[in-house]
Every structure is written in C-alpha cells, then in structure tokens.
C-alpha cells in the first residue's frame, strides 16, 4: 500500500473536537483506495505555550515539512494574548510554507437552509491571497499606551505575489463557469488596488473566454447577500478574503460547513487544510461543534493530493448527511462525534 503522511495540529478549543473526525474521515476515504494514513500529532497551541512559552519552533517546522499535508483545527484561546498564537503559529505556517493560495469554496448544498431569502444557486470559490497584504506584520507602534500613540499596519503587495495568485484564480475559472471577480478597494487603496487591477487585466488577455468583473469590497457585502449566485471565482487580497469568506460561510449554510485549503501549488512545501472557523471558545468542550467544515477540508486535501474518487466520496457523504439533517430534527441536533460517526460510516460504506 501507499502511505500518506499527515501532520495533525488540533490546536485549541473546538479544533480538538473536529480534527479527530476529519482524520477518521480521511482514513475511511483512503483505505478502500489502498492508501494508508500515517499521522503525526503536533502539540501546538495554547497548552504548549502555557507549558513552555513556545508557539512553533524551528524543529517543529522541520518535522512538519516532512509530511505530505497538514490538517489543522483552529488556534486562539481566551487565556493567551490575542495574536500570539494567530500570528506565531497559524500565520507563521502559512507564510513559511508559502501558502499563497487560500482556497475557500462556498456551495449551498441541497436542503441546507441559507439565512438569505433568495439564495439562488450558490457555488463559488474565493481565491484569497495568503502570504501578503496587511498580514505580513509590517507595522509597529510608537509611544505605545500614551495619548500620542501611533500604530501602523502596512499592507505589502508585490507584482510577483499578486500575479501568481491571479494566475491560479484564472486557472480555476477555466475549470469552472469562466467568471472571475476581482474584489478590492481601488478607489481608496490606490497602490495595491491598481496593482491587482492591472495584473488581472494583463492575465485576462491570456484567458479570453473568462469574463472578468470587479467589485469594491464594501459593495461585495451587498452582492453576497442579495445575489450570491452571480459569482464563480472571486480573487482578492489576504484581509478582504478573510472577511469575504466569513460572510460566504454564513450565507452558504453556516460557518460550521465552510472549508479551506492553504495551498502551495508548487509542492515545495506541504499544504495545510483547515475549517474557515476558529476555536469557538463559546462552544468548546461541549461536543457542539459541527465537524463538517473539517471533513470538507479533508476533501480539498484529497483533491490536492490527486485522490479524486476518495474526495468525491467525502463530498457525497457530506451532501447526503446535510440533506438528511434538513428533514429530521433528531439528526439536526446531533453533536460533533455523532455527525463524525455518520460521515465516517457513509464514506467507508461506499
Ligand atoms: P470563531 O469562528 O471561532 O467563532 C465564531 C462563531 O461561530 C461562534 O459563535 C462559534 O460558536 C461559531 N462556530 C465556529 N465554528 C463552529 C462550528 N464548527 N460549529 C458550530 N458553530 C461554530 O471566531 P471568533 O470567535 O472570532 O474567534 C475565536 C478564536 O479563534 C480567536 O482566538 C481567533 O483568533 C481564533 N480564530 C482562529 C482561526 C483559525 O485557526 N483558522 C480562524 C478564526 C478565528
Ligand atoms: C482565518 C482566521 C485567521 C486569518 C486568523 C486566526 C489569523 O481568521 O483563517 O480566517 O485571519 O486568516
Ligand atoms: Mn477568518
């Protein structure tokens, strides 16, 4: 048998509850295809930080790099200063492993209730830039804590960085409905905004079949609520992509269903798959978290590593489970492990 080496980072809060379900789903999907899953658990997050003061060491990074993929739950904990784990662990991984594509699909599955009155046929994918923008940490604080404090967060955008993610987005559009929407705010952020605009225009010349559209990010909030079916591929910067994809998750049936992949398309580093949601301290430890977003992230992982049939099996199991939930109060009130059990059984029994 072949082997898939999976690095597992449960992280904090509900990450510890949803990730085990994702690992079970991955095994159930791959075993019939003759692929064994070999997991390495990484103790990273609030617990490790409290015990050792470490967030992510060079040794952790070197060991993670030896894996085919990483499955991550969520990081962030009310007992740790905000930003320590988010920046020091999650963003460090995305940056160090050059996950320049943050792929976040939204599909309103049959039977799933959207909070929108007229959701239409919702099936789009956000290609969020993952290694630049305001996330680079190029900022600082002067005279901290005084009345004269100055705080900066400088957004860094490079032609190379924008072009590679834009090219990826066009390639996605070619495989889908051939529509690409750039989301930015070039009426105010004239430097980064026009860089994105120019590059989209240039790359579009190589894709005459792809219809190109633009929305300012504020107006995008309107369109995602009023007419989400108009979108196919959405390409945007790191921060706008973060915001757009929480709204996308909500209108697409709930954040408990929203999946993502942090992808290094070159294969130079392992890609990392995680639900869009965070550690949800408000429901952590109660078996209340929906593991579906993590299981759907496993489907993206399988696609990324070329396991198409297992990926399709995972999606089919989720789709059937969501339809079944819609028709049954009993199924709709299941907890994390019960949903996991049902998905794993459906994937294994295919
Ligand atoms: P959150 O996504 O953790 O929670 C937002 C809301 O969604 C909460 O009401 C929560 O209960 C609900 N929710 C989230 N996931 C759910 C699931 N699977 N099933 C059912 N309900 C779910 O966002 P937040 O509260 O803003 O952040 C909490 C912590 O998580 C912070 O420390 C933040 O920095 C961190 N965070 C981490 C990641 C990540 O690791 N990728 C992502 C977002 C937030
Ligand atoms: C996400 C999260 C992260 C982000 C945080 C926790 C760093 O919100 O994955 O969407 O902003 O990218
Ligand atoms: Mn987010």
TrEMBL record:
The answer on whether this UniProt entry bears the keyword Nucleotide-binding reads no
Similarity comment? Belongs to the isocitrate and isopropylmalate dehydrogenases family. LeuB type 2 subfamily.
Co-factor remark? Binds 1 Mg(2+) or Mn(2+) ion per subunit.
**A single GO molecular function, which one?**
NAD binding
Residue sites binding substrate per the record: 94, 104, 128, 218
Please give the superkingdom of this protein's source. Bacteria
> Per the UniProt record, which residue ranges are transmembrane?
none
The feature of type site (Important for catalysis) is located at 135, 185
The pathway is: Amino-acid biosynthesis; L-leucine biosynthesis; L-leucine from 3-methyl-2-oxobutanoate: step 3/4
Task: Tell me the protein's name.
Answer: 3-isopropylmalate dehydrogenase
Instruction: Please tell me the species this chain comes from.
Output: Brachybacterium saurashtrense
EC id: 1.1.1.85
